[in-house]
Amino acid sequence: MFNNYIKTAFRNLLRHKAYAMINILGLTIGITCSTLLYLYIQNELNFDKFHTKSDRIFRVVEIDKKSSGDNWFYGQTTPALAPALKAEFPEVSDFTRAFKRGGHIDIVWKEQRLHERNFFMVESNFFSVFDFKFTQGDKKALNDRNSMVLTASIAKKYFGQKNPIGELMDFAGYDGMKVTGVIEDLPENSHLQFDLVFSQNTAFEKWSEYLNDWSSYGAYTYLVLENPNQIKNIESKKAEFIKTHWGDKKVNDFYLQNLENIYLESDQVQYGVSDLHGNKFYIKLFIAIAIFILLIATINYMNLATAKTTHRAKEIGLRKVTGATRSSLAMQFLIEAILVAMISFVISLGLIEAILPIFNEISGKHFTFSVDSFLEIVGVLFFITILIGLVSGSYPAFYLSALKPIECFRGEVKNNFRSLFLREGLVVTQFAISIIMIVATIVVYSQLNFIREKPLGFDKVNMMVIDINNRNVRNNFQTMKSEFAAIPGVVAVASSSRVPGEWKNIRQTFVKTSKESSDSLDIYYMGFDEDMLSVYNINLLDGSNFEGNILTDSTKVMINKAAADALGFENPIGKTISILRMGVPVKIIGVLENFHYQSLHNDVAPLIVGCWANNLQAVDYFTLKISNANLKNVIAEATKVHEKFDNNTPIEYHFLDSQLDLFYKKDQQAGNLFGIGAILMVFVASLGLFGLTSFMMEKRKKEIGVRKVLGASLGQLYILLTKTYAKQVLIAFLIATPFGWYMATEWLNYFAYQFTLTPMVFLCAGFISLLIALSTVTYRVFKASVVNPAETLKHE
Q1: What 3-state class would DSSP assign to 558?
Q2: Using one digit for the tens of pLDDT, what is the confidence trace for 658-716?
Q3: pLDDT at 123 over 60
Q4: Taking the CA atoms of the chain, what radius of gyration do you get in angstroms?
Q5: Which helix (H) or strand (E) holds 495?
Q6: What are the φ and ψ backbone dihedral angles of 234, each rounded to 5 degrees?
Q7: pLDDT for 783-796, tens place per residue?
Q8: What is residue 492's three-state secondary structure?
């Protein structure tokens, strides 16, 4: 019996090839896209869950409660915190800490000057808490002093095919480090990302003192609880703990953040172990896209199956007369739907493998199509396929199996009100989803374009930023600055501790309006030399710039307008403020126009600009303003200048506009996925609409012939046959607009600065949807309208 169902299903598909192709193509696109999005969503939701203790590992996040009422969250803690928590809270079974001394480490290896940035110094139990897979060595690899563990890629980089175990490496500041272990390259879905780790018991001057200092910071602290539910016990007792150990010092509070939540719930956490974090809103949108595109493909099948009722009426009548029951007919139609879905499933597997590299490039992921990865998703994919078949075939099965034989043989099969209403409702749903996706795409690209075009308050084009990674460079930076300026094509040069549009952590410092004041503000700080304002074209609203005199400039600062407002100064020029670690009060000599020194996701925060010569933060960058000269020559000459003063580290540079784009990389990737998703949804919907129109024109060809005989023009026929679709688009527009508005405003709320969302966006989306609908049906309508009515009526 089952074999008969399959044979019949194949015969029907071969008999109605166009119908089969439309359904198979639509479902193939739906399954392929939903599978790729499933991979993306699964990757985002499973960050750090590969650790066996992931539900029991918690990161400690410190909370600094500002006098303004704001809370600032820090991913670093005092190193003394972890052992105290372990000693005083029986709920804590273990802890581990990671540290980072400096932004990079240098090494001369085989006469090459190299540096590494992705490194940590960790405790010996680090690999007992976190489950990274060892290829050589084991979890005790860091038990000995001066030991280190490499990832497979770094081991290959330095040792090639040679066994690195037991080899010594002399990094600057980490001499005589022995390789005691090699781990697999870290999974992409880990918030901890590093290339090498050193044992914490490596000897450093005053290290023990630092580990027990409650006023120091810089530890990334992770606790392992006996039971994840015990976090409530810690929360109830931590107030007394804070009072005992910190008293009235800076820390107001802390909370424990589960390891599995770090990636998706760290938007507000500063100074974390990594800037890598996800966005829950994007995950929700991608889930919606996957569901929408499957829904549209399913709707296509249901619409086409019910629309072609008349083509299968005699078959249904004959089957019923020969004894077929309603249940057997329903089973036949369900098997047909499942068969179409299974064919689409098989095609999708090949398509997924082919386009996976393109999807990786668009999404920023690194998925591979292997036996292991296939086995991980095949069960889910197969389930989705069967579900699609059952859902898409359910209504046609029960509707077609209910037809009466006498109606079938007399040709009196008509779509009843319920089936017509359902079909029109499904078409409206398709249009509504398409309009929502078109709105989302327009909004995303408008916002990203707004970000690219928005004036930041400084010049970002043709700015070559060179990192300072060596003390000798800092000691001679003024000489280097002069030599950089002498390079042909370099217009001007400036030095600073940080640059506008900074991507690294920007220093914060306590500021008081006077020494006697009890109130203080935590304000961002940068150190500029006297050329920074002119090189970056930052506007000075009031007062004066630095003079270039170390003695006088070191006691002066400039502030931005936001800082002047935060400090409560109407006329700040000449006012003095006290800055932590500056030693002496400093005088405000200038007020800068607010410029966006951070991402446009954030408001412009208060900023103090001090002279490079003060003791708060050393110079860390050269900025070379370049003309449209030979860029390769500028880079080559700048490299020579750098090598002259730095024999240990290679030159490290980037261009500011490219670096700023990284702020919005995640948004750009989401925008690309929105755009592609919208195009595919519209295509699948158009595919179904084209097939549906073909059936409708076939059904109404006698009516069209009669109308032509009675004098109807081509234009009148076109309006008559397309007005239904225009009405459906209008209804879909009214339904989609509030949903689109909600989605757009929710996404835009992730940016402090937004383009103006106007009704024109929605009108434009509605017009595009109408244009696509009319373009889709025009061919079939025109073809039906130009047929000779004599031929039509003769055959009828």
Answers
A1: strand
A2: 888 888 888 888 888 888 888 888 888 887 777 777 666 666 667 777 776 677 777 77
A3: yes
A4: 34
A5: strand 490-496
A6: -65, -45
A7: 666 666 666 655 55
A8: strand
pLDDT higher for 629 or 290? Answer: 290
DSSP state of 641: H
Helix (H, G, I), strand (E, B) or coil at 780: helix
Task: Give the contacts of 195 (CB within 8 A, at least 6 positions apart).
Answer: 116, 118, 119, 150, 151, 153, 154
- The token pair that represents 394 in the structure block: 């359910």
Residues in the chain, overall count:
796
Q: Is residue 625 scored above 90 in pLDDT?
A: yes
Measured between alpha carbons, how far is 523 from 578 in angstroms, rounded to an integer?
12
Measured CA to CA, the distance from residue 197 to residue 569 in angstroms comes to 48
Residue whose C-alpha is closest to residue 294's, from 634, 540, 591, 34: 34
Structure confidence at residue 103 (pLDDT): 72
CA distance 192 to 190: 5
Residue with tokens 């995950």: 283
Return the SS3 of 750.
coil
The region of weakest confidence among 306-315, 374-383, 458-467, 496-505 is 306-315
Q: Which residue has the tokens 């434009």?
A: 764
Return the bridge partners of 511, or none: 521, 579
Residue by residue, what is the 3-state secondary structure of 412-457?
CCCCCHHHHHHHHHHHHHHHHHHHHHHHHHHHHHHHHHHHHHCCCC
> Which is nearest to 686 in space by CA: 355, 297, 380?
297
Which amino acid makes up residue 485?
A
**Residue 31: count of CB within 10 angstroms of its CB:** 26
Pairing of strands 105-109, 92-99: unpaired
Please provide residue 181's backbone torsions phi and psi, each rounded to the nearest 5 degrees: -165, 155
Both tokens of residue 316?
């249904």
H or E element in which residue 258 lies: strand 253-258
Q: What are the angstrom distances between the C-alpha of 221 and each of 81, 637, 652?
A: 8, 44, 30
Alpha helices in 646-758 (DSSP H): 656-661, 665-699, 701-709, 714-748
In whole angstroms, give the CA distance from residue 45 to residue 121.
28
Contact yes or no for 522/508 (Cβ under 8 A): yes
In sign, the C-alpha dihedral spanning 702, 707, 713, 717 is negative
pLDDT of 395 strictly over 60 = yes
DSSP 441: H
Who has greater pLDDT, 204 or 264? 264
CB of 300 closer than 8 Å to CB of 26 = yes
Asked if residue 760 has pLDDT above 60, the reply is yes
CA angle 342, 347, 348 (to 5 degrees): 90
* Mean of pLDDT values over 559-564: 92
221 bridge partner residues: 97
Lookup result for tokens 């563990």: 149
DSSP for 680-693 reads: HHHHHHHHHHHHHH
- Beta strand pairing call for 71-74 and 269-270: parallel
Q: How far is CA 407 from CA 316, 354, 413, 697, in A?
A: 10, 48, 6, 22
In the chain, how long is the greatest CA-to-CA distance?
Answer: 106
Residue 312 pLDDT class (50, 70, 90 cuts): low
Whole-angstrom distance, CA of residue 389 vs CA of residue 334? 7
**Would you say 705 and 787 are in contact if contact means Cβ atoms under 8 Å apart?**
yes
Q: For residue 513, give both structure tokens.
A: 């309006």
CA–CA separation, 441 and 435 (whole Å):
10
DSSP code at position 313: H
429 token code pair:
């749903």
Q: Pull the structure tokens for residue 144.
A: 């000995």
Q: Determine the Cα–Cα distance for residues 697 and 692; give it in Å rounded to an integer.
A: 9
Are 497 and 609 within 8 A, CB to CB? no
Question: Cβ(562)–Cβ(602) under 8 Å?
Answer: no
Measured CA to CA, the distance from residue 143 to residue 79 in angstroms comes to 19
Task: Indicate whether 573 pLDDT > 80.
Answer: yes
- Cross-strand partners of 467: 621
Cβ contact 777:689 at 8 Å: yes
